[in-house]
């Protein structure tokens, strides 16, 4: 690609890049040169009519500012109280307010104008996630014909759930403004195709692309991964436990953002079933659930926190002994190296989302294992990661007995089977490593049919 790469994501890294996605995009920008644009962590409301420099070395970082009302309406509102629940099949939690949608569109339009002002003819734009669905249509309406790619990190919604959105038909039109729509799994692609098939404005072309009014869009899956080599390295030298003399014999670990999509009440209840059905009273499994606080200003997140505190209190009240607390619910973020050490120490990784784009924790757990004595991954079928990770014990998190049974099986699994399953999973983790994901996506975007002419629209 001759021009610059311009990455757009709501969160922009400040300081040293950390975390899989941020590091991967950082590397892509280092290799190709370019600009990363995201929401300014500075809450100042001044200067919303321009991009602010957050540093120019080794690539440009530029930020757009939001007013307090825009943060509430565009970010906590439309993105996290409308689009997030719709994509995660929780239409019961959707909160529709006209100001949410108005500010979502206003922020996207302002950003489109700011980007268009500085765009070179050969620049390629890569937009990340549901905060910016309409950005391409808005850029097109400003005359931009550059290649624009989009990647959705969360599940593609079910076609019937889309009807819950205000003006549901916008969703397909917004996506069609991109040259390439990248999704996590083949199932996501199938759902996107179902949406286009049901839309009279769309026509499938012989090469598999979709013609939608004046646009041609490609849709494909690019399962995201982790820097597996780095995690394998950290795990090999990690401190594997803070427990000291109280080191549990059987450790089950969960690590998630505290989000209702992660199936945490189901995980706790399934663990309760496991304790209830214990045949050997000497067996004292411990579930360590580390849940990083998330979106605490949204009501649904406050409710799930109280619910989890209540369930863990009930389970611990019923089963704790003087020298054993079966469920440890740690409501905070922990240092990355410590988390990887805990994953290596655990006999079981328990990942139970009810809907999840990919779930990187599942891949991190696998990469963190000791190849000579690996733990077992128990993984929800509803995580994108389950599409390829056939070496995991796959469960339906709504079925508490099935989850409890899988954990029991994992705790008793002979070494030979553990190794065999681990090797299968590790192969998937390595094949989908983050550098491969970035390269595959950008190569595919470069080969997409370019947007040649535009029929500008007055508004998105
Ligand atoms: P998330 O919903 O945030 O990501 P996930 O993919 O599991 O979910 O990534 C979470 C990251 O945060 C992991 O790197 C994990 O190690 C870390 N983390 C989780 N709990 C932590 C804790 N308590 N302390 C410290 N770190 C913690 C969204 C989508 C996913 C998709 C990713 C990437 O929802 O489906 O896989 O983007 O595309």
From TrEMBL:
Gene3D superfamilies: Glycogen Phosphorylase B
Pfam families: Glyco_transf_20
Residue spans crossing the bilayer: none
Similarity comment text for this entry: Belongs to the glycosyltransferase 20 family.
The protein, known as: Trehalose-6-phosphate synthase
Species per Swiss-Prot/TrEMBL record: Thioclava kandeliae
């Amino acid at each position: 690609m001759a021009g610059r790469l311009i990455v757009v994501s709501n969160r922009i890294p400040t300081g040293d890049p950390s975390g899989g996605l941020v590091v991967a995009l950082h590397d892509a920008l280092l290799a190709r040169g370019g600009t990363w644009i995201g929401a300014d962590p500075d809450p100042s409301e001044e200067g919303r009519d321009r991009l602010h420099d957050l540093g120019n070395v080794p690539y440009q970082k530029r930020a757009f500012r939001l007013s307090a009302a825009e943060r509430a309406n565009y970010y906590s509102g439309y993105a996290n109280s409308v689009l997030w629940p719709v994509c995660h099949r929780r239409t019961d939690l959707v909160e529709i307010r006209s100001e949410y949608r108005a500010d979502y569109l206003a922020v996207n339009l302002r950003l489109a104008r700011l980007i268009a002002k500085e765009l070179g003819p050969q620049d390629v734009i890569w937009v990340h996630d549901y905060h910016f669905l309409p950005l391409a249509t808005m850029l097109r309406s400003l005359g931009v014909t550059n290649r624009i790619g989009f990647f959705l990190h969360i599940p593609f919604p079910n076609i019937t759930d889309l009807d819950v959105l205000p003006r549901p038909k916008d969703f397909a039109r917004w996506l069609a403004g991109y040259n390439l729509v990248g999704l996590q799994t083949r199932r996501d692609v199938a759902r996107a195709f179902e949406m286009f098939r049901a839309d009279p404005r769309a026509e499938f072309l012989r090469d598999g692309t979709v013609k939608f009014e004046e646009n041609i869009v490609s849709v494909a899956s690019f399962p995201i991964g982790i820097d597996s080599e780095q995690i394998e390295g950290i795990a090999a030298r990690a401190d594997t436990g803070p427990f000291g003399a109280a080191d549990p014999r059987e450790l089950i670990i969960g690590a998630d953002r505290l989000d209702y999509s992660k199936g945490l009440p189901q995980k706790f209840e399934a663990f309760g079933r496991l304790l209830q059905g214990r045949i050997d009273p000497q067996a004292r499994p411990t579930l360590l659930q580390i849940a990083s606080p998330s979106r605490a200003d949204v009501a649904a997140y406050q409710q799930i926190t109280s619910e989890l505190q209540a369930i863990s209190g009930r389970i611990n009240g019923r089963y704790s002994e003087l020298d054993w607390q079966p469920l440890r619910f740690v409501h905070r973020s922990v240092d990355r190296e410590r988390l990887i050490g805990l994953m290596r120490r655990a006999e079981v990784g328990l990942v139970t989302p009810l809907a999840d784009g990919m779930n990187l924790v599942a891949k991190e757990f696998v990469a963190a294992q000791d190849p000579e004595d690996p733990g077992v991954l128990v993984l929800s079928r509803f995580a994108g990661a389950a599409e390829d990770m056939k070496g995991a014990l796959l469960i339906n998190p709504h079925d508490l007995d099935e989850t409890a049974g899988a954990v029991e099986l994992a705790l008793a699994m002979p070494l030979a089977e553990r190794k065999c399953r681990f090797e299968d999973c590790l192969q998937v983790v390595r094949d989908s490593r983050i550098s491969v994901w970035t390269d595959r996506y950008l190569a595919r975007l470069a080969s997409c049919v370019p947007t040649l002419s535009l029929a500008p629209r007055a508004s998105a």
